[in-house]
Amino acid sequence: MDARGFDQLTRAIATGTSRRRALKIFLGSAVGLGLFGQAIAQAQEAPTSVDSRADIARTSANLLSRMPTQAAVQKLPSNVRAASDGLRQLLTLGTQAQGWSDAQLQSFRTQVDANVLQHKQLASSMVQPQAGGLPCFMNCATRFQQDIALCNGGLLCQLVVTVEFDLCVVICIL
User: Fold this and answer.
1) What is the b/e burial string over 150-167, where b = at least 16 CB atoms within 10 angstroms of the residue's CB?
2) CA dist., res. 124 & res. 147, Å (int)
3) N or C: lower Cβ tally within 10 Å for the chain?
4) Cα dihedral angle (8, 9, 11, 15), rounded to 10 degrees?
């Protein structure tokens, strides 16, 4: 795209909204998509077989450090905040995975599946045109839906993609 075409594109995007808002949407979407690219690469590096307790503990600690700050989460709508808080609790629990019994591991997997389902429902509501979804949110939700499908139920992949979705949504808010 040449400079003139880019100028026309930015004017078209900014029509009806402030340039600051258009730039925010553009940057939020770009950063969000960049984060999702990293998430998928990280998820593909994760073992595809049964995840070891050590892998779960290490990945949970790594993802916990990447979660949005509590201050940023407080700016989210209540339903998104609840899902993000639930994910944070799961990751905190996951850091202790090395000492788990098989029953505790299965319970964790069930809780992760429930949290992923909660995030899927949020993503579905964000891509509905009648919901008045903002383009940035719609980009986050669409990418989440695509990437979570690629996980094929892989625990570590689901955790990575869900954290990246939360980060993308926070970027849209800020």
Assistant:
1) ebeebbbbbbbbbbbbbb
2) 14
3) N
4) 140
Residue-number span of the structural domain to which 89 is assigned: 3-173
Sequence-separated (6 or more) residues with CB below 8 Å from residue 39: 147, 160, 161, 163, 164
Q: Euclidean distance between the first and final Cα of the chain, in Å? A: 29
Please tell me the distance from the alpha carbon of residue 57 to that of residue 97, in angstroms, as a whole number.
5
Give the position of tokens 């779960």: 56
Number of domain units in the chain = 1
| Mean pLDDT within 5-12 | 49
**Cβ pair 57, 64 in contact under 8 A:** no
3-state DSSP assignment of residue 152: coil
Task: Convert the pLDDT of each residue in 69-120 to its tens digit.
Answer: 888 888 888 888 899 999 999 999 999 999 999 999 999 999 999 999 999 9
Question: What tokens appear for 17 in the block?
Answer: 């909204």
Task: Provide the residue type at 163 as one letter.
Answer: V
CA 49 from centre of chain: 23
The single residue listed with the structure tokens 């700016």 is 75
